[in-house]
Amino acid sequence: MERAKEDETGEEGETGTEGQSSWPGGVANRPGGVANPTSADRTRTGTRAGTRTPPNRAMNSFSPADEEKLRGVRRMKLTATGLLLLVAVVYVLAKWAGNSGAGAWTGYVAAAAEAGMVGALADWFAVTALFRRPMGLPIPHTAIIPTKKDQLGVSLGEFVGENFLSQDVVRQRLRAVGIGSRLGAWLGDPEHADRVTAELATALRGALAVLRDSDVQAVVGEAINRRADAQEIAPGIGKTLEKVVADGGHRRVVDLICVRAHDWLVLHNEQVMDAVQGGAPGWTPRFVDKRVGERVYKELLRFITEMRDMPAHPARGALDRFLTDFASDLQSDTDTRARVENLKREVLGRGEVQDLIASAWSSVRQMIVSAAEDERSELRLRVRASLLSLGARMATDPKLQAKVDGWVEGAAVYVVTTYRDEITSLITDTVAGWDAEHTSRKIEAHIGRDLQFIRINGTVVGSLAGLLIYTVSRALGA
Fold first, then answer.
1. Per-residue b/e over 325-349, b at no fewer than 16 CB within 10 Å?
2. Please, which residues have CB within 8 angstroms of residue 305's CB and are 6 or more apart in sequence?
3. Is the pLDDT of residue 30 over 80?
4. For residue 80, what are the contacts with CB-CB under 8 A and spacing of at least 6?
5. Mean per-residue pLDDT for 78-103?
6. Which phi and psi angles does 47 have, rounded to 5°?
7. What is the mean pLDDT of the chain?
8. What is the CA radius of gyration of the chain?
9. How many beta carbons lie within 10 A of that of residue 318, not counting itself?
10. Burial 34-59 (b: 16+ CB within 10 A, else e)
11. Which residues lie below 8 Å from residue 24, measured CB to CB, with a gap of 6+?
């Protein structure tokens, strides 16, 4: 009985960081124990599929809360051990009283106490075998948690993968949550819409700050050039020009050109006459050259004036026919279309055009950043209004709710089915990286107090069972 008491109380061990046990031949020294594994054992414990897994600090250290739980476990162990000692004392006294002729009742008490001791010792063995080898003996199927830690981790990973990360379970759970309606009700709240708008604005500013202007300009320029090369512009220009001429939209442009040309001729009459005189032959008299220059200037001014003032001027009709023919050539003439394409490439390749693209991006970025920072900007107000509208629709429209739920379910199922092995391996690798001794002690700290009730219940139930069996036996024997 003293040895039983010693075993019971020694099971508690010390609370130091070494986690040593006071058992004879305790955890640290027992043959075949796993408390202080060798380097090979540690490598095997922390290795899965050939990969060394670093120890998990949370399972290899004890917090003040863990220490408090361990103290609770020790108190319950003392209670269970005290109950065992109590029934042992009752058994000894009942036997002594029976031998002294106290009466038949002593047999009932002794039978109950004896069965209570058997139940208490059996449950002590079962509880102890979970965490260590009872009394340090290499009994098979003991120290289950330290020796089977990796297998338990694999089993736990498989259990989680099969029962929590399956496609049907994920869909059923998400469908029951009703994310679409909940998200709609949440977005429909103005405060939440303001919060989402602010977060989106912050994210937009951050994204624009991360992007380098040179990279964006290169991407935009390359996209414009690729799109321009992929699509011929001459037919489109031809169709547009044809419609403009048919609708008379070009006449205002012709009016403007005629007005500006007339004003220019009036202001630069001397330059025009000098240009005409300069082109005359050297052998003609100067007064003749002057008269010819004046005549050419007057005719040119008259022609421009008449074209400006006469909407039905023949030159305007000729211009209309020219533009109509040019629009047709842009759509059907191979040579004209090829020239336009060459001109397009030359224009896009010029540095001025690329600088224009760069300046346009800088302006657009600054405009977006300013709008994102201003809470009353049109951009943020429209985003907020769109979020509120979307939230209201999602909260009341079953079809939209079903679409959102389907998108969320599809995304979740894709993640689960694609990365299930990685998720479960996180469990198995983490468990494999735990130190066996600390794992046992930490698990015992969390569930050991409840396990001690098994010992107490075993003592009580064993006593009652022993009493019943003894009573039935005496009744049948009588």
1. ebbebbbebeebbeebeeebeeeee
2. 262
3. no
4. 8, 120, 124, 452, 453, 455, 456, 459
5. 91
6. -120, 135
7. 79
8. 48
9. 10
10. bbbbeeeeeeebbebeeeebebbeeb
11. 6, 10, 135, 136
